[in-house]
Amino acid sequence: MSIVLAPGARFEGLLTFRGEARVEGELRGEVVAEGRLEVGPEARIEARVEVDELIVEGQIEGDVEARTRVRVASSGRIEGRVKAPRLAVEDGGRIQARSLAAGSGEESSEPAADGDEARAEAGRGGVDESAPPLLETTPE
User: Fold this and answer.
1) Closest Cα to residue 34, out of 19, 55, 47, 45?
2) Which of 38, 46, 53, 138 is in the most buried spot, having the most CB atoms within 10 Å?
């Protein structure tokens, strides 16, 4: 595995790669890759992320799409939409979904998944079925 962004380093723009990569620093922009991205515990990413597999030990703010799976470690956090056929959130890991309150024009944040409660939170009622999903899993 190659480290794409070392601790303390910053990158802004489009990151593309094939294979495996790890981010330990700060990244802002977009990640589009064929392979696995690991986000280290001290990493901060503000980006749209589209990869095959995503492992999050640090923080991501932005929409995430993984073609095979997303795993959020106990130290990991995602703020934004998540789309993946498989999702694992370790105890302590967190997914914070953003939604637009209907008619208000104001964005609100609600926890979508937190550790072992991920399935319960994702399946709660009161969801506007016409709105795009905040947390989506698709059959393999």
Assistant:
1) 19
2) 38
